[in-house]
Amino acid sequence: MGALLQEDRLFPAEASAKAVARDLYGQVRDLPIVSPHGHTDPRWFAENEPFSDPSELLIVPDHYIFRMLVSQGMSHDALGVPRADGSRATRDGRAIWKQFASHYHLFRGTPTRLWLDHTFETLFGLEERPNAGNADATYDHIADCLARDEFRPRALFERFGIEAIATTEGALDDLKWHRVIRESGWAGRVVTTYRPDSVTDPDFEGFRDNLVRLGEITGCDTGSWEGWLEAHRRRRAYFREFGATATDHGHPSAATANLSRAECEALYAKVSTREAAPEEAELFRAQALTEMARMSAEDGMVMQIHAGSRRNHSASVFSSHGRDKGFDIPGPTDYVGALKPMLDAVGFEPKLSVILFTLDETAYSRELAPLAGAYPSLLLGPAWWFFDSVEGMRRYRAAVTETAGFYNTAGFNDDTRAFPSIPARHDVARRVDCGYLAELVVDGRLDMDEAVELAPDLACGLARKAYRL
After folding, report:
1. Is the pLDDT of residue 1 over 70?
2. pLDDT of residue 2
3. pLDDT in tens, 342-360
4. Residue 415: half-sphere exposure toward Cβ, Cα within 13 Å
5. DSSP codes, 190-211
6. Residue ranges of the alpha helices (H) in 247-322?
7. In a domain, 2, yes or no
8. Do both 384 and 409 map to the same domain?
9. 43 and 59 co-located in one domain
């Protein structure tokens, strides 16, 4: 047993299943990490500078952490979270760390606690969890580690055993840092992902100005529907130059549409020139998803749909601190009816692959698994935020496997901004999956040789294949 971690954590309690899980896990624990979707900063790998301090690395960028602290009365400002205009109320890393350490008990029973304990023990060698009494000592210890060359971003990338990692950039990004990485000669594989929400969602802040900028950087007439489409084709091609194999779409619903060309032109003329009515915005997002699917059927980029998040639920936090500040909340989501127009249009195109994510857990067995179990273009993404936990992963496997099987899923991805937690997240997923396979073996639904084949697929093989990496 380690200082913070139990050796057989997350394995089944029953002895025979635990033994099988332990054996399976031993065969996959050291496999490479394939991280095909996430939000780490490519600038880290481009510049390869030391991380500035423990708080900047572990707390400020991680909404899993500051969300919990805010829910207990602390403020984004006091935790150093950047405001919408880029300013910071504090950059005092030690003060931020003291707040975190003195409230570490709040994370008991959460996946964040598992990830942090794993990071603290295996990466930094801590022998006790942070608390009010040891806040200064733990801060100093981690800060001392971060000053060493072996804790620079590229060294950690290699230490973590990362085979490939995908970042996510908006359609208007110049991909400067990916260019620097490529020209540096470093062998680490860091690819980008095309996220066009700022120019496909009329409710996105600055949408009409974003369309103008899209036209400027592509040389296309984004005042017209056909020019808008061509601009996306050119941006997708540009992203592919920097390794992109996937696109990502974060929509409030999974709605798709299949309008005529005349209807598309008329709708675009409305949303591109004035503030869109709610029903117009939803219809445009729906048509945009179908157009992105058509393009994926042409260029082979894997399409990810992250639906069901009621983003930026707090108007005041969104106004003061912007997007991705812990106030994206799950909501009920329709997939069967919503995806039908897109699937009718391109659902059987041989090059199309769509990975579906949800925050509506009730949809897994009712809608998503049956859809993925029927359409060759659909795969199920792993349990996503709020469900990328031990119990959430177990419920996910139980909900989807009997209908969609294992091979209609996309394996695991960590979807994180918190770089040091990547090994921890993959370790949790591998332990949970080995435990699930072990229970299938013990109750006779799976042979051991089949479990031995499946475990590496669930660990990294399915993700590698699904994302065409």
Report:
1. no
2. 65
3. 999 999 999 999 999 999 9
4. 21
5. EE--EE-HHHH-TTSTTHHHHH
6. 261-271, 278-299, 315-321
7. no
8. yes
9. no
What residues does 306 pair with on adjacent strands? 250, 357
Residue matched to tokens 């108007």: 315
What are the structure tokens assigned to 378, written together? 């659909």
72 and 181 share one domain: no
Both 397 and 414 in one domain: the answer is yes
Q: Which two tokens stand for residue 134?
A: 């040891």
Segment 370-392, tens digit of pLDDT:
999 999 999 999 998 889 999 99
pLDDT value at 326 more than 90: no
- Residue pair 257/306 in contact by the 8 Å Cβ criterion: no
Query: What average pLDDT does range 209-223 have in this prediction?
Result: 98
β pairing state of 302-307 and 309-310 = unpaired
In a domain, 9, yes or no: no
Please give the structure tokens belonging to residue 155. Answer: 């060294």
pLDDT score, position 318:
83
Q: Residue 80: give the domain boundaries.
A: 51-151
Based on the domain organization, do 176 and 202 belong to the same domain?
A: yes
- Mean residue pLDDT across the chain: 96
pLDDT for res 280: 98
pLDDT at 327: 86
Give the end of a domain, one of 96, 127, 151: 151
The number of distinct structural domains making up the chain is 2
CA distances (Å), origin 276, targets 253, 261, 268, 269, 283: 17, 19, 10, 10, 10
Close Cβ partners of 377 (under 8 Å, ≥ 6 residues apart): 343, 346, 347, 348, 349, 352, 353, 354
Contact indicator for 246, 194 with CB cutoff of 8 Å: yes
